[in-house]
């Protein structure tokens, strides 16, 4: 069957539009703190609420085989609609911290019907060459995640915070509509078998799968904590160097968004180096960035510090589509769906721990040394990959 040329661009575009919901709250965090009287620790807690919602949604969607029982494109659209509604709901007056947590949790829950389901839609069309397609899809996720920061810094005064939420919600609705209208069910769609609880421990007995999974866990320890605190890093640097002025929203977008290009480049590089070697290199480089972060903050050279963050923003996520490929390739065929769900849930649970750790450390000290605590993730992930040929 001939695939229409527009399919992958539409899927990638819809993924970008809808995943802009992920960090929409982070892009306007300073405004949320001021308007609703939140504590400074709200950044970590609200980010973790999205992650926890995503974990819950991923598990329940897999348990009830939602994307197998119903058209994946329709699931994507419905979740885009509901996620957009919850995201826009943050702008309503009268919120307390609890209601904001609930809305961000629900946004994360419905993202479980967008990001993984978008991957499934792509796999239903691309039985071969999926690795490169995943590079584009994860790249779209990365740029979508960064986009609210760009919206916030779009004008000299900054786009009003409510309009950042309205715009990302509108994008999500547009992306979901575009996909459901233009992307029908793929020719390689197969019914899933649902979760197999008995497979939980069995899949980790496979050495290559275990190596790929633990590499992914190390990667996730660092990734979302880095993304969540990029604006804080920039603000901290400016406070340490009086007279330095940084456009925090725009630079945050560039630092996080640079990873989108790295995901695509990593996919092409893996065709020559292999996925394991490319992922290991990215883990090594991002781990070095964690260790060097305190030194970078001491540089009295803003351009050098921003260049360091740009490089970190690329290597911290370049391995993400590669781990997706490695985990899928080394999962037992008869329980692949369960294996991928388990790994995703554990990986995102780890992000909550690292985000809360950095949040707690920030409550104790303003020292940039706290970001060195992200280094154990890449180090342990690299150790897992090197011990076994994944």
Automatic annotation (TrEMBL):
Keyword match Membrane: yes
GO molecular function (one): transmembrane transporter activity
Keywords: Membrane, Transmembrane, Transmembrane helix
Span of domain Major facilitator superfamily (MFS) profile: 1-390
InterPro entries: MFS, MFS_dom, MFS_trans_sf
Chain ranges passing through the membrane: 5-23, 43-63, 75-95, 101-122, 134-151, 163-183, 211-230, 250-270, 282-299, 305-327, 339-358, 370-386
Annotated Pfam families: MFS_1
Any Gene Ontology CC annotation: plasma membrane
Entry protein name: MFS transporter
Native source organism of the sequence: Neolewinella marina
